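subagent[fold] <- orchestrator: predict structure for attached chain, return tokens only, no commentary.
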Amino acid sequence: MRRLPPLAALRAFEAAARHLSFKRAAEELLVTPTAVSHQIRLLEETMGLRLFERRTRQVVMTEAAQRLYPVLRDGFDAFARTIDGLSAKARPSTVTLTATRAFTARLLDPLRDYDRRHRAELIPTLEAFLDCDGSWTRCATRLHLHVNTLRYRVGRIEQLTSRDLSRLEDKLDFFLALRMS
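subagent[fold] -> orchestrator:
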């Protein structure tokens, strides 16, 4: 029987080693930096060795970590390729989506009109927000905006369309309308 450390700890280590940052690993894994740190400590305790030298706002891989990282990276990459290949065979190859002009006009015309009058860039903001899966930080960074400016724009989009971008149904409607326009 294999004696392996917990998979969550291995995933946290691989992400932290790849980014050389607990914070960026946490963003990728959708957990807190503290959770990543706890997983790394668990792995270090399980293996009986230190993997990172922790410094102020920086982590440095030890020699052991430098040996372990490429093995885990290649293993996770192989898992991903195999799973993607199997999943692609199980999925239909094409999906056809349609939307009426009235549907797209009802959603997007108020935003286009507002953009024309105020040069507010609501349509590009909406596209970026959806592309970033609703992540305020990533979207603000992509658009080179302060998060509060992004929140204001998204609030304006919601106000003009009577939609709620925290709801999956509304995000899907906007996604379809943008793709069909």
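orchestrator: received. Logging for downstream: The CA atoms of residues 79 and 85 lie 10 Å apart. Residues 7-90 form a domain with the Arc Repressor Mutant, subunit A fold (CATH 1.10.10.10).
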